[in-house]
Specification:
mainly alpha; single chain; elongated; about 0% strand; about 700 residues
């Protein structure tokens, strides 16, 4: 067992020894191979070193060639791009010629507009191509020239290539110098811009304002519900084309030309639109010319001015402003169009301002007050719309002139009003009073004038004028009275001036005409009271004011008239204290004398009434007649009751009925024909005289 294990170990050791010998032989062989490889590497290294020395000049030459190629390409590539731009510009010019031919031959407006858009696109493309040529031309030629000079100096390439580059440089330089300026200023681009200007003007000329006359006619009919507003001008395509042309012209340094065309054409369009309203009155504008106009013509002119001014602002200029912004709003960040609009509007507004200023500065005749107030009120109503139209800084001057016109109208209205009072008060100088005691024309005119002024249509603007003037005089921090109080005080001043005028005329009658001043005062003050009663003027002044200053004076004058004219007639019939002491024959004689004196006095009163006394107011005349009947007839009936038995015969005296009829005829203006009594029914006569609703003007003591 032990012998077997020993043999096994010996075999293993022998096998391991054999493996070690084999490994040693392999290591020795590998070492020999490594030595051989070292020798080969040394040979290769020597070979590579030798090759590197030989290749180094070729490598430098290759790098220099590549750098030269890059330098040449950097100069040639932009030159080729420049030549492509020349080719593209030539192609675009051919398209422009084609579109220009189509535009000149096209009759359909829509097709022409579509072609015009393409034409504008071509103009923009040609402009871009020419701009590119102008911007790139000189740098490209400069680079190419530097390359040619470098090659000529260094002889880095063959002479053939250098010669070709030099010829290319000369050709490109000559082309740039000769063609670019012509393309920019004298070529097809310049012609295209001129065509665009013509088309621009033509389209602007075709866009018109519509319905101006219709709106004016609606205003003439007094349609207060009519809302005047601007309409849209031009179609979307027309506006787009005009906007594109404006931007193209502005980009080509033609902005001034574009603005001149726009302002000139649109001003003419606006002027023609307003001329359709036939505003011939605007040709008359100086104060002297306006003073020479007939009042009816001036009144009509002012009415038309108010309507046309409103139409011009709310309809025409609103439309123009919107249209101007649509067309020119894209130029210079929107800074151009407000100036253009104001240039157009300024010329139009100047004509209206000139007429309004002429009216305000003309003579201050009383009848002008109402038209001045109409003008002022129209400006007040128009102010919000006017401020909205001219809200930009460029419209400041127009707004200032608008406010100045308002100031002129306020001053003119105030001056006309106050001068009217002075004219009323001064009218008594040298003007004789009416010889029949009737109401003078100045009173009729003044009362109707103030009644019209007190209506709602004129009281509001007149009060505003007075308040504004008071603020100007007292300062902005003052506390003006209410509009109603201001107007009441102002109208009261005119009424007081009128009263002084009447009093002056009243004192101008001859001394021998005792009753006529009272007839005059009665007629005049009654006229003033009755014409203002239950009117806006009466409500403004107050009922107590009117009664105290006019009705009471009229009643007092009526009393004085009766006292002077009729009371002496009644006194003829009074009983004398010594009449009963006389004999019967003497009494009959005295009674007959009294009766004849009464009849004669009645006849004298009738003649004086017919020639000197006039009571034009029917109601006043009726009241005076009834009051006179109540004064005269009872006294006459009482006289007959007392003494008729002493009178011989029934036909020797008049019946009360006949006397009443005669008294009534006095006030009717008929002749008094004495009719003898046919009946002795005095009681009936007396009662008919007393029964009546006439006002008793006799004073109560």
């Amino acid at each position: 067992m032990a012998t077997r294990e020993g043999n096994s170990r010996l075999s293993d050791l022998k096998l391991a020894c054999t493996d070690l010998r084999t490994l040693l032989k392999a290591s020795a062989l590998m070492e020999q191979n490594l030595k051989n490889m070292d020798k080969k590497f040394d040979i290769i290294d020597e070979t590579l070193t030798s090759a590197s020395r030989r290749v180094a000049p070729l490598q430098s030459l290759s790098m220099a060639t590549k750098a030269l190629e890059t330098r040449i390409n950097r100069a040639v590539t932009p030159a080729l791009a420049l030549l492509d731009n020349f080719k593209r510009s030539e192609s675009i010019q051919n398209k422009l010629l084609d579109f220009s031919s189509k535009l000149s031959n096209e009759k359909n407006m829509n097709k022409k507009l579509k072609t015009l858009i393409k034409y504008v696109d071509c103009v923009d493309q040609l402009k871009a191509a020419i701009s590119s040529i102008c911007e790139e031309g000189e740098p490209v030629i400069q680079r190419l020239q530097e390359v040619v000079e470098f090659l000529s100096r260094t002889k880095a390439t063959d002479q053939y290539r250098t010669h070709r580059l030099r010829e290319t440089l000369i050709t490109l330089k000559a082309l740039y110098e000769t063609e670019v300026d012509a393309m920019r200023f004298e070529g097809l681009l310049d012609e295209a811009l001129l065509n665009l200007q013509d088309e621009y003007e033509s389209i602007l000329q075709q866009i018109k304002h519509q319905n101006i006359v219709d709106q004016s006619q609606a205003a003439d009919k007094g349609d207060d519900q009519m809302v005047i507003m601007g309409s849209n001008l031009g179609t979307e395509m027309e506006i787009e084309i005009l906007r594109r042309i404006s931007q193209t012209l502005a980009a080509e340094d033609c902005l001034d030309i574009c603005i001149d065309i726009y302002v000139k054409v649109r001003y003419r369009r606006v002027a023609k639109a307003l001329m359709r309203l036939n505003p011939e009155y605007l040709r008359t504008h100086s104060p002297e010319e306006i003073d020479e106009m007939a009042w009816e013509n001036l009144e009509t002119a002012i009415t038309l001015w108010i309507q046309h001014f409103e139409l011009a602002v709310k309809a025409v200029l609103v439309s123009e402003k919107k249209f101007c912004e649509q067309v020119l709003g894209g130029i210079m960040d929107g800074l151009v169009w407000p100036e253009c609009f104001v240039k157009i509007a300024d010329k139009i507004m100047a004509v209206f301002f000139r007429f309004g200023e002429g009216v305000a500065r003309s003579s201050k005749e009383p009848q002008k007050l109402f038209k001045l107030l109409d003008m002022f009120e129209s400006l007040e109503k128009l102010n919000p719309a006017f401020s909205l139209v001219f809200d930009d800084e460029s419209g400041t001057d127009i707004c200032i002139r608008f406010r100045e016109l308002e100031k002129l109208l306020i001053h003119a209205s105030s001056k006309v009003f106050w001068e009217f009072g002075l004219q009323i008060e001064g009218n008594s100088d040298g003007v004789p009073p009416p010889q029949d005691g009737s109401v003078p024309k100045i009173v009729r005119y003044a009362v109707n004038y103030l009644k019209y002024l007190a209506t709602e249509a004129y009281s509001v603007p007149m009060a505003r004028v007075l308040r504004t003037e008071q603020i100007w005089k007292a300062g902005i921090l003052s506390r003006p009275e209410s509009d109603e109080n201001l107007l009441r005080d102002a109208v009261s001043n005119i009424m007081e001036a009128l009263q002084r005028n009447v009093d002056a005329k009243r004192s101008g009658y001859r001394v021998d005409k005792l009753a006529l001043p009272h007839v005059f005062a009665m007629n005049t003050y009654w006229y003033i009271y009755m014409r203002t009663k239950n009117t806006e003027l009466g409500k403004l002044l107050g009922d107590q004011y009117m009664k105290k200053n006019y009705k009471v004076i009229a009643e007092e004058s009526a009393y004085m008239y009766q006292k002077i004219v009729w009371v002496p007639l009644v006194k003829v019939l009074e009983k004398d204290s010594d009449l009963e002491l006389e004999s019967k024959e003497a009494m009959v004689g005295l009674i007959r004398e009294k009766m004849e004196a009464f009849i004669k006095g009645l006849d004298d009163v009738s003649k004086r009434h017919k020639g000197n006394y006039s009571i034009p107011d029917a109601d006043l005349k009726e009241q005076i007649r009834l009051a006179t009947v109540r004064l005269v007839i009872p006294a006459y009936s009482e006289f007959l009751d007392a003494f008729s038995v002493l009178l011989p015969g029934k036909s020797s005296y008049l019946s009360p009925e006949s006397v009443q009829e005669l008294v009534c005829r006095v006030f009717e203006g008929g002749e008094v024909k004495l009719k003898r009594r046919g009946s002795r029914d005095r009681t009936a006569g007396g009662s008919s005289a007393v029964d009546g609703g006439g006002k008793d003007f006799r004073r109560k003591h």
